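FAQ

Q: What does a record look like?
A: Structure on top, sequence underneath. For example:
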């Protein structure tokens, strides 16, 4: 949800802390864009200096141009996705202690804020915002003064740990104090925080995007850990103050990967990176002799052999990647695969045993629903394997094994290239299980891997040949009030994904259905001119399925629908029947989601662009959903 950045330098006060905070916020804005703020501290200040403003980061930048900020030694910055209190100047972070000496920023929800607020009010504290964060700021101010009384000197790190022990809910907190102008302190509970290690400077961020322009060396912080950075030191402890060894890692992408380059939007750029995302996710995972090598998983082959059921847990787009995984893994490995929305999983008392493998799919690695689902699975004794795109994030850290997707940073809120990478990783997992369990012959596995390796140019071909017809169709459809999306077999999750993309960025009512369900209700929605998008399976070897989907097209057309088909090149039946066809090259049916989804991603983007919406930052959404 919110984006958080912190900076501590060892040089005398300079413009650097403000520069780093604004740079970091620019890269983190995809996490939330309701308001933004920064706070700076330098030796000699009596109270923290801060600016905050509702709306996009540019509003804050303009405010700082009008009322410049002083040089500083440390700084913190925040970009907000409102959970608690409306998006407004007063609710924007940072929030300040009663005496003005401490500034605090926060991501998450503090569940006992109301009670703490009553207690503080009873002691004479006053509140101007409607946020839980202001409660944490006032509380930290109070506790910091208590620590000074006890120790005779300020210790913001100790004060923050005490405050962290008093809070319930989910939080990442960062704070600065004018009495300790060399440090930034942070704490995390069920919310992300990573440390960036520089030369004579150190960084904090809700993800590595906050500081990747300055350093690629990073530390993962664990659950219930606190950190204190200065220009020269990084100290990590648990909330009781016991020293903790944080795990170092190197960020595997460059700052330029999170920049828009010459593209109109990040979404446009990221759709064009679809082929690369698939290619990079396959890279280095197949031996010279054609055997899949997933040693990185750190789960023994014996354990994999013992798995008799898989449950995929994920949210939104990632859950549709999980649905594709179900079709492929059941076919290749012949064990049952359930795909479940993570938000529903632990509330239905799922049957989990040590032989169940729970696969948590997440681009961000921070989705709270998915994190809670995997914790539940591990508590019940099942093993959890994460398919994730973000190093240093919570979901891989809390899983038994991780298969990283190598899609590179995904900045646009609507997930595109990460979806293709998730499907690719799920195929790799399925083929690996087939290899370990012996459910496929070796040459079948290597042929399938070869077919997979041939997919990136096919995805590229869809982008190269279909962009114009997609754009043209978007122009024709821009005033449509609603859309239906239909698909069968692996086309069904793609119908769901196509509908979600259009809904979230073009704000159009859409429904995705299994095509077979059409006559059980949805067909009642079809009226003259209603656009219906149909994912058509290839006729090769699947004549019955193909024929059934063709009947669905004819049924809706008979009621006046305008049909847009996604179909395999050369499918003459479709060319004769559908009003518009988005063509994709021939490929194995199980891999068709990798090409079928591409025109639907482009279509959603074109529709949103034609309606003059911000395709990268759709209203009410944020990239990383760190609350349940
Ligand atoms: C849709 C979208 C969301 C995410 C979902 C899960 O375009 O981006 O539906 O797929 O919030 O996010 P991750 O994959 O980060 O767990």
């Amino acid at each position: 949800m919110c984006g958080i950045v912190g900076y501590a330098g060892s040089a005398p006060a300079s413009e650097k802390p403000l520069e780093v905070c604004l740079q970091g916020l620019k890269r983190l804005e995809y996490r939330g864009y309701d308001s933004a703020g920064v706070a700076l501290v330098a030796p000699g200040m009596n109270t923290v200096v801060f600016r905050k403003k509702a709306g996009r980061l540019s509003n804050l930048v303009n405010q700082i141009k009008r009322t410049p900020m002083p040089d500083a030694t440390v700084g913190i910055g925040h970009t907000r996705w409102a959970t608690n209190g409306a998006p407004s100047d007063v609710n924007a972070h940072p929030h300040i202690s009663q005496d003005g000496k401490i500034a605090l920023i926060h991501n998450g929800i503090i569940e006992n804020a109301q009670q703490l607020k009553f207690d503080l009010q009873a002691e004479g504290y006053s509140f101007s915002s409607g946020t839980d964060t202001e409660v944490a700021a006032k509380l930290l101010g109070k506790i910091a003064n208590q620590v000074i009384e006890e120790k005779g000197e300020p210790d913001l790190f100790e004060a923050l740990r005490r405050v962290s022990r008093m809070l319930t809910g989910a939080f990442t907190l960062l704070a600065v104090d004018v009495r300790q102008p060399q440090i930034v302190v942070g704490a995390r509970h069920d919310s992300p925080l990573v440390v960036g290690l520089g030369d004579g400077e150190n960084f904090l961020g809700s993800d590595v995007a906050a500081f990747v322009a300055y350093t690629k060396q990073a530390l993962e912080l664990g659950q219930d850990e606190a950190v204190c950075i200065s220009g020269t030191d990084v100290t990590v402890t648990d909330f009781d103050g016991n020293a903790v060894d944080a795990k170092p890692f190197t960020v595997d992408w460059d700052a330029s990967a999170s920049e828009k380059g010459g593209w109109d939007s990040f979404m446009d750029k990221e759709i064009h990176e679809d082929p690369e995302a698939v290619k990079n996710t396959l890279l280095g995972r197949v031996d010279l002799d054609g055997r899949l090598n997933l040693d990185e998983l750190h789960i023994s082959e014996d354990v994999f052999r013992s798995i008799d059921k898989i449950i995929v847990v994920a949210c939104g787009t990632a859950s549709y990647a999980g649905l594709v995984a179900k079709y492929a893994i059941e076919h290749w490995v012949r064990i049952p695969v359930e795909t479940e929305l993570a938000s529903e999983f632990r509330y239905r008392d799922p049957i989990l045993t040590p032989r169940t493998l729970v696969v948590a799919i997440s681009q961000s690695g921070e989705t709270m629903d998915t994190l809670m689902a995997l914790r539940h699975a591990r508590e019940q004794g099942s093993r959890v394997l994460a398919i994730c795109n973000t190093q240093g994030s919570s979901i891989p850290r809390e899983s038994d094994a991780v298969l990283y997707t190598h899609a590179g940073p995904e900045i646009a809120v609507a997930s595109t290239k990460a979806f293709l990478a998730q499907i690719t990783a799920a195929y790799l997992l399925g083929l690996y299980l087939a290899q370990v369990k012996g459910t496929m012959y070796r040459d079948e596995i290597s042929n399938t891997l070869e077919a997979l390796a041939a997919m990136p140019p096919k995805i590229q071909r869809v982008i190269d040949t279909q962009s114009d017809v997609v754009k043209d169709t978007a122009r024709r459809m821009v005033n449509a009030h609603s859309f239906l999306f239909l698909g069968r077999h692996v086309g069904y999750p793609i119908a769901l994904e196509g509908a979600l993309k259009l809904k979230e960025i073009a704000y159009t009512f859409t429904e995705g259905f299994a095509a077979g369900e059409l006559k059980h209700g949805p067909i009642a929605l079809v009226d003259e001119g209603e656009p219906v998008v149909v994912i058509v399976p290839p006729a090769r070897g699947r004549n019955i399925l193909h024929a059934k989907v063709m009947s669905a097209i004819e049924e809706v057309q008979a009621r006046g629908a305008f049909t847009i088909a996604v179909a395999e090149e050369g499918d003459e039946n479709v060319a004769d029947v559908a009003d518009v066809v988005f063509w994709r090259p021939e490929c194995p049916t199980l891999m068709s989601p990798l090409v079928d989804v591409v025109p639907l991603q482009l279509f959603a983007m074109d529709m949103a662009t034609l309606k003059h919406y911000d395709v990268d930052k759709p209203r009410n959404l944020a990239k990383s959903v760190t609350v349940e």
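Q: Is there anything notable about this one?
A: The first strand starts at residue 3 and ends at 9.
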